[in-house]
Amino acid sequence: MENLQEKIKKLETFLERDPDNLRIVGDLVDSCLRAGNLDQAKVYLAYGLKRSPDNPSLAFQKGMLLLYKNEFQSAVEAFTALLNTDVPQDVVKYNIAWARLALHQPAESLEVLEGADSSQPRTALLKARALHHLGRMDEATELLWVAATHDETALEAESMLAIIALDQESVENARSLANSILGKNPQNVEANLVAGTLSLNDGDLAVADTNFSVALAEKPSSGRGWLGKGLLAMLRRDFAQSTDCLERAVELMPTHLGTYNALAWAYICANDLDKAEEVAQRAKSIEPRFAETQGTLAVISLLKGDKSSASIQSKLANRLSGNSFAGRFSKVLLDSDSGEVLSAESLMGQILNSEINKQGESLVKALTRYQEKIQQEATLNDPEE
């Protein structure tokens, strides 16, 4: 970072001597971006564009600045304007695809990369991330092994392979990959997320907490990290913290059904049934035929005293999936109905600890295990410059 600052100072001196030299301006913008000085990069970019409004190199750097500022839709528009120009098209398309994936548009991202050379490791890695989001795990895995053979992308590819192993419930494979990666880089985000989730399932809360904390320190925008923190807080019965963390996770993963359901259960445990129902209904609006959501709504209806709606929702949940935790839990509650009004407080222990599905999972284990395959979190590699 210090070397970049020194370079910026030298370039500023050169620009003072030659104020119309756009090459120096471009180098300044690039150096400021790399140093994380986004405001300074914006100033020099405006300086250059004022002198040459149609300069394609500066237009490309405008797109890069928008990516660094997480203004992904504007970045898509900026790079799309550079299609069919003299700017290298493979790099332009890569960055459009990167921004599309950041916008939770994996199909559109993959479409942009159609025909791109998958032997290029970063292209293979980005395609794999899009395929992972779409639940096309075998295709993603094949591309990740391509990326894993190149030094520059090997660790990222192995990290994604660990995530896919976790999503496919290949526990020992996920554990082995995560441990191997952490041996090389203890701060690796994906490996810490995998290790944290496995430790959570194993009941080793202290280790899980450390893993999720490391992941979030490295990447505060990790939805999986906040999901893990939220589930930890739920296990510790700190429902205020749980809902805070899970709200953040939903914000970062706005189409991930498992996170919505985790948040709804946290509100159930906090005895805020109206909020729980609101969250579950949001999940239902994304995918109405997801069994866990229907089962969660059944439990909420039962707690609100609406046994008729609960019965309908519970039957639908169990018809959609015989292995739905919430569906089976709601059925147990309905079948054991004593006529008394249930309360969230009285159910808290059952909600957190009862083993209700065929695998003998508790709620927290079911939620951490579950990953809706077509709606995964994007953990993006750096945009190509």
Give your account of this protein's structure:
Pfam families: TPR_16, TPR_4, TPR_8. The chain has helices at 2-17, 22-35, 38-51, 56-68, 72-80, 89-102, 106-112, 121-133, 137-148, 154-167, 171-184, 189-202, 205-218, 223-235, 239-252, 257-269, 273-286, 291-303, 307-320, 325-335, 344-353, 363-369. It is mainly alpha-helical. Among the domains are: 1-82, Tetratricopeptide repeat domain (Serine Threonine Protein Phosphatase 5, Tetratricopeptide repeat); 288-356. It contains 22 helices and no strands. It is elongated and about 85 Å long.
Give a brief rundown of this model.
The protein has 385 residues and is an all-alpha fold.
Distance between the amino and carboxyl termini? 18 Å
**Averaged pLDDT, please?**
87
Quickly give the structural class.
Answer: mainly alpha
CATH architecture of the domain at 1-82: Alpha Horseshoe
Task: Tell me the overall shape.
Answer: elongated
> What is the string of helix and strand elements?
HHHHHHHHHHHHHHHHHHHHHH
Unreliable stretches (pLDDT < 50, length at least 5) are 369-385
Query: How many helices?
Result: 22
Write the layout of secondary structure elements.
Blueprint: H1 2-17, H2 22-35, H3 38-51, H4 56-68, H5 72-80, H6 89-102, H7 106-112, H8 121-133, H9 137-148, H10 154-167, H11 171-184, H12 189-202, H13 205-218, H14 223-235, H15 239-252, H16 257-269, H17 273-286, H18 291-303, H19 307-320, H20 325-335, H21 344-353, H22 363-369
